[in-house]
Amino acid sequence: MEHYRTRSADHPQRQQPERQQPERQQPRSPAPPVGGVPAQGGRPRPAPARRLPRPRLTGLGGGLFACVAMTLAAGIAWLLFGGSLLAYGLLFLLVAAATALWVRPADLITAPISAPIAFAVGVWPLSGGFGAEAMGIVSALALHAGWLYGGTLVSALIVVVRKAVLISRRRLPRRTA
Fold first, then answer.
1. DSSP assigned state of 57
2. Mean pLDDT over residues 38-64, rounded?
């Protein structure tokens, strides 16, 4: 939703302070190197910290990400751990947390909804042969409901905390103004 400006150009909050041009401009010195000692002395600047990427997934994108990640997690659990649902459950906790962290603020509610769906999609390859697919999936979901509930709870808690932070950031400027 866009906010339109309703204040006139001569309103005190919209007026920009006039900049006075100095009579004589001095040449700019080169910027000090990052992470090193400046050329003219002084304190060294710390190197910029490497940040993790901050993708913003839509609700559908978050669900697709979770489903694809859980299918890959099932493949990893099958190849490395012999189809261990313990390893699959631990990977599910990570995927549920990542989905809840990477979904955009407008679609926060979709993260706890897509987590159990992704668990079911990913458990399908681990549930047994193709002949007993439905029974294998139902059995795996029933026997490992703890992981399912745990991942959904992790996702829901992250979403609630993120939403609380977003609400507090919106209210903060109103209090100071």
1. B
2. 73
Report helix, strand or coil for 116: helix
Rounded distance between C-alpha atoms, residue 127 and residue 85, angstroms? 9
* Cβ(76)–Cβ(86) below 8 Å: no
Question: In which residue are the tokens 């390859």 written?
Answer: 125
Single pTM value for the model: 0.59
The residues, any chain, with a CB within 8 Å of residue 9's CB and separated by 6 or more, are 15
CA dist list (Å): 100 to 69, 85, 90, 172: 13, 22, 16, 24
116's CB contacts (< 8 A; 6+ apart) are 148, 151, 152
Q: Flag whether pLDDT at 97 surpasses 90.
A: yes
Residue 114 corresponds to which amino acid? Answer: S
- The 8 Å CB, 24+ separation contacts for 90-95 are 92/118, 92/119, 92/122, 92/147, 92/148, 92/151, 93/147, 93/150, 93/151, 93/154, 95/66, 95/69, 95/70, 95/151
